[in-house]
Amino acid sequence: VWVGVGACMSVCLRIYVFIEGGTQRLSRLVGRSKAKYLIFTASVVKGAEAAEIGLVDEVVEQNDTGDAAYHASLDMARKIIPQGPVAVAMAKQAVNKGIEQELQEGLRTEWACYENVIPTKDRIEGLMAFKEKRKPVYRGE
């Protein structure tokens, strides 16, 4: 999640909390105490503080065209694209499902996701690329 400096987080936070199950998600992002404080006081959270408390991943200074967050998201996509698509999908699934589970169940979910990566050609490609000291070329297989 990115937010441009100066963006109005209070409006976003209010919508998120009351429409999108935000009381549950916010407490998982920032902790119970901080979530209560933000929700009960309807606090305005500026970009730097949002990053500091874990509400957003990155804060970017707005550019002249008003699309700095868009460009930051493209930069992140450029970092993800070269990674193994099967591994990325399984990591996403493990994180998304695991966070909603008790730790032991989350660990089982993580292992189940990894088991889906083990038989792939991409996993072998990654191991071979590491051994040969080259960048892997993943195909999603």
Could you explain the architecture of this structure?
The chain has helices spanning 9-19, 22-30, 32-41, 47-52, 68-80, 85-98, 103-117, 121-131, and strands spanning 2-4, 58-60. By secondary structure, it is mainly α. It has a two-stranded parallel ribbon. Helix 2 crosses helix 3.
Q: Secondary structure elements and their pairing?
A:
Elements: E1 2-4, H1 9-19, H2 22-30, H3 32-41, H4 47-52, E2 58-60, H5 68-80, H6 85-98, H7 103-117, H8 121-131
Parallel strand pairs: 1-2
As residue ranges, the low-confidence spans are 1-16
Run of helices and strands: EHHHHEHHHH
**Coarse morphology:** flat
Oligomer state of the chains in this structure: single chain
Sheet with the most strands: spatial strand order: 1-2
First CA to last CA: what distance?
Answer: 29 Å
Strand content: under 5%
User: How many strands in all?
Assistant: 2
Q: Which structural class best describes the helix and strand composition? A: mainly alpha
Largest sheet: 2 strands, parallel
Mean of all residue-level pLDDT scores: 84
Tell me roughly what share of residues is in helical segments.
55-70%
The number of helical segments is 8
Which value, in Å, is the CA radius of gyration?
Answer: 19 Å
